[in-house]
Design a protein that fits this description.
3 helices
Length: about 90
């Protein structure tokens, strides 16, 4: 079950990340140069690697990683909400 929940959180993270990239928020112009590699897809690659790492750790029985990824997802959700609603 934790593996499935981490997977669902990963889908949510990708969705929010893509929405933030598509928003072309002015703050995206102030991020470090490596964020813009591959047309912004570098950050999606990092997001994918975080998900794969969490999935592998949870699959091996380290359930603490599910909690960590849940917290990471919560911070991502709040950040995306702030950016997409124009509060930042």
């Amino acid at each position: 079950m934790p593996l499935f929940l981490v997977f669902l959180l990963g889908i949510g993270n990708f969705t929010l990340h893509k929405a933030v990239l598509a928003s072309e928020h002015p703050m995206l112009g102030r991020v470090p140069w490596f964020f813009h590699l591959l047309g912004g897809k570098f950050s999606l690659t990092v997001e994918f690697l975080m998900l794969v790492g969490a999935l592998l750790m949870v699959q091996q029985g380290a359930s603490g990683w599910a909690w960590f990824y849940g917290g990471y997802s919560a911070v991502n959700a709040v950040s995306a909400w702030l950016i997409l609603t124009g509060k930042v």
